[in-house]
Known about the structure:
Blueprint: H1 23-39, E1 52-65, E2 76-87, E3 101-110, E4 121-124, E5 134-137, H2 142-154, E6 157-158, E7 161-165, E8 175-177, E9 185-189, E10 193-197, E11 200-201, H3 207-218, E12 228-233, E13 241-249, E14 255-256, H4 257-266, H5 272-292, E15 296-297, H6 300-320, H7 328-339, E16 349-350, E17 362-364, E18 370-372, H8 383-386, H9 393-408, H10 415-433, H11 441-462, H12 468-479
Antiparallel strand pairs: 1-2, 2-3, 3-5, 3-11, 4-5, 6-7, 7-12, 8-9, 9-10, 10-13, 12-13, 14-17, 15-16, 17-18
Helix pairs in contact: 3-5, 4-9, 5-10, 6-7, 6-11, 7-11, 7-12, 9-10, 9-11, 11-12
Amino acid sequence: MPKAASTRSTARPAAVRGQAPSAAATAMVDSLAPLLATWLPHQRWFAGKGRSLTALVPVAVTELLPPVPSGGEGPGLLHLLLRVEQQDPQQPPAAPAGPGDCYQLLLGVRTSLPPHLASSLVGRVEQGPLAGRTVYDALHDPYLAGVLMDRLRSVDTVGPLRFGRAGRIPAGLAPRLLDAEQSNTSLVYGEAYILKILRRVVPGPHPDLELPLALAAEGCERVPAPVAWFEAADPAGSGEQLTLGVLQPYLRGSADGWQLALSALAGGHDFLPEARELGRATAQVHLALASALPTVALDSARSAQLAEAMSRRLDTAAQAVPALLPYAPGLRAAFEALGGPGAVANGRPAQRVHGDLHLGQTLRSPDGTWSVIDFEGEPARPLAERRRPQPPVRDVAGMLRSFDYAARSHQPWRADWAARCRDAYCDGYAQAAGTDPRSEPELLRAYETDKAVYEVLYEARHRPDWLPVPMAAIERLAAQR
């Protein structure tokens, strides 16, 4: 069981120094800490699984809807930015905790919880300003989800929260929480809009808002344009914003590429026209990003930096997943081709990319049009790294890995299906972009290898049953010369 957390107002991590939480915020988090310390590690979006909680530090506490006085029936809505400090199990118990991650929580407060909200229970508060109240995940409550949308559509500020919008949003949209496996939380409103609530937040321009806004300004129709968003100022005083949520059009009737691929496999059908058109869509997004935002040419220093980062990720993954160790020399050879003397990447253009492109990040409308969504990048990587210009082949490699994932989810494994889809995708990409990613096999191999290493670490931590899928790719990629 996770260790109970305690709030420390005198030993806050450096990231929150400069703006001390109020006494009321500290008291609020103190009273919630025993409940949250048990609840947080079980949430799908919580990134710190396997490490003991040592402290919950209030960054900001905002009443979006004040709790009613004791004995009243109406719910309250609390918005929390919470710094979660944890102990690394590989460090001695006396070692200081790391700086921690900042999480966004939206909590409902009621005197008692109706039966239809029982699954969202966090717990009953025993002491402090909310003593005797029941606290729960507010995003499961249609009423409180509606309150959040009302703030988003019509209010500019609430405490430290800042709401922005690109157009008028109608009132009275019924909310529906999406029950999907993801690192954030999404709600659909009126089957017209989808709101992504970012759970682990960091200061700086967030790609899931930054890139769709840039693409909308460029007139790219492959990506739904943001309709509204909300942010908070960095409490450390850096001048940066913490992006908290992004509202975009909901592509009703569209199906995600992953489910379409699995359906094709189950029905014994190929996926070649879809893969080819998806390659065209990817290239069009890349061309728009290159037009909207600065690009760079990879010199030897930048190439070496990319290769070194890949090697470090391999070292980290191999420490956590020893099964990688026998393949490490072969995998590292792919990175050396990227960043060593005479590196294949030297002189190649680099630009902003999606950063975590796979079939599940695409939607196909009933008329066959593909859209690309979820520009957050790989959330486990630092924001600065996710925003760094990369060769477009980074995204191509991610999609090629996704075809492999789909083929291996089918029994028996359809290696031929994956190979044909990979070629069709690259054909479509080359047709739209004018360059074929297969023409630079060393570059493509390096990025496929880096992606497979990421997958191994992810699956080992979150879905051990899936670990054989990326490990099969690791074996193949390590053997290439």
